[in-house]
């Protein structure tokens, strides 16, 4: 492939339907007794494979970036310092602090970027380094100024699992190097003001580094003035040289109040979008502890949660009275979370795709999102023998899974792609769910960053089955009763923009549509009191595949009896304006009996 880029290639191979080979008994709260293994289950006909750069190509990028001396997202923005100081150029960027090991911060990632521009001259080469954090097995949280305007797919390499920087000869010191499948930065990022400075890189395959979670949207305690926060990075260790640290460093910085930050930086500091930390710099390396160039994109951590992403500071980092400035993660978790959890069937973008089954012959189809419409359908073969099919990603490996219910006995199964063997695996996860009136796979309900499963029993009680991230579940937890008053219960992702999973329910009696806002908690407090957002008569099927439009907000689909399918784009508002004006995406959807 030219340019050394990478992509995920999907090969469709017709595979005959075969009897499912059930795994050995699974120790899970859901599985209670053996099921009728003689009943055939669907076998997905789509084979997935990844096409990634060779290790040699990735090392070439690392070596090129190591030799580079460019600065990611360099800007000419000026910062007005407090009284008595002169204006200084702002650099996106541990002076002070101590060395540490990767064992103390296993989620730390090194982001290396090298573009030789395809020329023999080195004068136009771009090479730079940023930090980042592993926030799921295939996702790296970093700064937008490290991502915007750069083609990470063609030129990037992500190194994890080592506290050492690579050597000039490409020695990775035991680390694991990965390519980048796709990139996202906040759509409102400004290179002038360095506002909304947050981004997510998606890897082509899961890595083993232990993830760290982002803080929640409602977190205020972590930002209280004086709170101790931990900074990690490989950035510059002195204001008088460009040398970055060969070994991971950490430092403890006190969080500063918004008024203190604004006093130092004036209008350059944007309250609510930024947070600053540290003691005021002394004007020299002596007595100063701060983030600096090379720390860009790395995390600021409080209570094992990321509360900030290294964004900017004054040039050379130590000007008297200066503080390190970070993107405030509590503000951006609603925008970043959909990108962290955005598995989709096409794997090529950030848009949720539609999966449907044709009622006449039980053939399954994928219809890839084009934003406000869907592409031509692609066959997934015979999906007879099941009456529930849900799109999800229970193991967070970046490949979309399916949770299905067998019609004959109500047994539940998890179908997931195993990249190492290039095959689909089927695992029973529950027995005798025949009488469950609703089953939903909305994502992470409980706030532990692991996808969960919901079901409503015949008595109308809603249960949470907390996922463990590997297709097994902890003991079920009761939410509350009364859920059989609804003839539809759907959810996949965040409808309100706060980073928490929500549900949409429609009443049997009058077709009123209600929003149940997720709280990130479990049990009876898992969802807030319902909010009426619509009255939807005239529809007989619904679906919530996730973010169809790719704007970071969960969307909804509704079908009329005549077969017209409407897309209701999410607005992120928890009111009657939760959805924008509907868009027709097709008139032939009456032929489908199951929406994934």
TrEMBL record:
Keywords: Disulfide bond, Hydrolase, Protease, Serine protease, Signal. Residues 70-89 are annotated as: Disordered. Transmembrane segments: none annotated. Its EC number is 3.4.21.-. SUPFAM superfamilies: Integrin alpha N-terminal domain, Trypsin-like serine proteases. One of its GO terms (molecular function) is serine-type endopeptidase activity. It comes from the Bacteria. GO terms for biological process: proteolysis. Residues 78-89 have a biased composition (Low complexity). Residues 94-361 form the Peptidase S1 domain. Residues 1-37 form the signal peptide. PROSITE patterns: TRYPSIN_DOM (PS50240), TRYPSIN_HIS (PS00134), TRYPSIN_SER (PS00135). Belongs to the peptidase S1 family. This is Trypsin-like serine protease. It comes from Streptomyces sp. R21.
């Amino acid at each position: 492939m030219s340019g050394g880029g990478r992509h995920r290639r999907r090969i469709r191979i017709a595979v005959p339907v075969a009897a499912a080979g059930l795994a050995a008994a699974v120790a899970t709260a859901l599985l209670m007794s053996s099921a009728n293994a003689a009943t055939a289950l669907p076998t997905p006909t789509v084979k997935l494979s990844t096409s990634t750069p060779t290790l040699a190509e990735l090392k070439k990028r690392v070596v090129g970036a190591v030799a580079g001396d460019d600065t990611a997202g360099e800007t000419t923005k000026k910062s007005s310092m407090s009284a008595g100081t002169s204006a200084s150029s702002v650099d996106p960027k541990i002076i002070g602090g101590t060395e540490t090991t990767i064992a103390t911060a296993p989620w730390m990632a090194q982001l290396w970027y090298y573009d030789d521009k395809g020329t023999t001259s080195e004068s136009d080469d771009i090479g730079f380094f940023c930090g980042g954090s592993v926030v799921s097995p295939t996702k790296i949280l970093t700064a937008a100024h490290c991502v915007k305007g750069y083609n990470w797919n063609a030129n990037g390499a992500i190194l994890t699992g080592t506290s050492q920087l690579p050597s000039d000869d490409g020695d990775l010191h035991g680390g694991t190097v990965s390519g980048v499948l796709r990139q996202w930065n906040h759509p409102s990022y400004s290179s002038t003001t360095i506002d909304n400075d947050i981004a997510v890189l998606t890897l082509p395959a899961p890595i083993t580094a232990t993830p760290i979670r982002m803080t929640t949207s409602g977190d205020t305690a972590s930002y209280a003035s004086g709170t101790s926060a931990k900074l990690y990075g490989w950035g510059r260790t002195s204001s008088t040289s460009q040398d970055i640290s060969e070994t991971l460093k950490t430092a403890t910085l006190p969080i500063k109040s918004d008024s203190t930050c604004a006093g130092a930086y004036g209008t350059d500091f944007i309250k609510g979008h930024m947070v600053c930390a540290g003691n005021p710099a002394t004007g020299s390396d002596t007595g100063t502890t701060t983030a600096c160039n090379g720390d860009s994109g790395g995390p600021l951590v409080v209570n094992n949660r990321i509360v900030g992403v290294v964004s900017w500071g004054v040039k050379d980092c130590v000007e008297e009275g200066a503080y390190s400035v970070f993107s405030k993660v509590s503000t951006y978790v609603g925008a970043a979370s959909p990108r962290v959890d955005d598995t989709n069937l096409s794997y090529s973008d950030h848009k949720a795709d539609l999966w449907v089954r044709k009622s006449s012959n039980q053939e399954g189809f994928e219809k890839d999102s084009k934003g406000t419409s869907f592409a031509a359908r692609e066959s997934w073969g015979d999906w007879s023998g099941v009456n529930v099919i849900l799109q999800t990603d229970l193991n967070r490996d970046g490949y979309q899974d399916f949770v299905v219910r067998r019609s004959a006995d109500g047994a539940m199964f998890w179908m997931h792609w195993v990249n190492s063997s290039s095959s689909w695996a089927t695992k029973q996860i529950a027995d005798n769910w025949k009488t469950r009136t609703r089953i939903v796979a909305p994502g992470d309900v409980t706030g532990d960053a692991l996808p969960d499963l919901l079901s409503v029993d015949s008595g109308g009680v809603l249960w949470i089955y907390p996922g463990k991230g590997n297709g097994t579940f902890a003991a079920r937890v009761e939410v509350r009763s009364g859920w059989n008053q609804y003839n539809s219960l759907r959810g996949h992702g965040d409808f309100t923009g706060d980073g928490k999973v929500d549900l949409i329910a429609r009443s049997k009696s009058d077709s009123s549509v209600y929003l149940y806002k997720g709280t990130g908690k479990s049990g009876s407090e898992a969802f807030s009191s319902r909010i009426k957002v619509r009255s939807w008569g005239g529809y007989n099927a619904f679906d919530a595949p996730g973010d169809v439009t790719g704007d970071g907000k969960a969307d909804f689909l509704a079908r009329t009896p005549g077969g017209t399918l409407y897309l209701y784009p999410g607005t992120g508002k928890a009111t009657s304006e939760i959805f924008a004006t509907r868009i027709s995406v097709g008139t032939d959807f009456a032929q489908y009996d199951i929406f994934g």
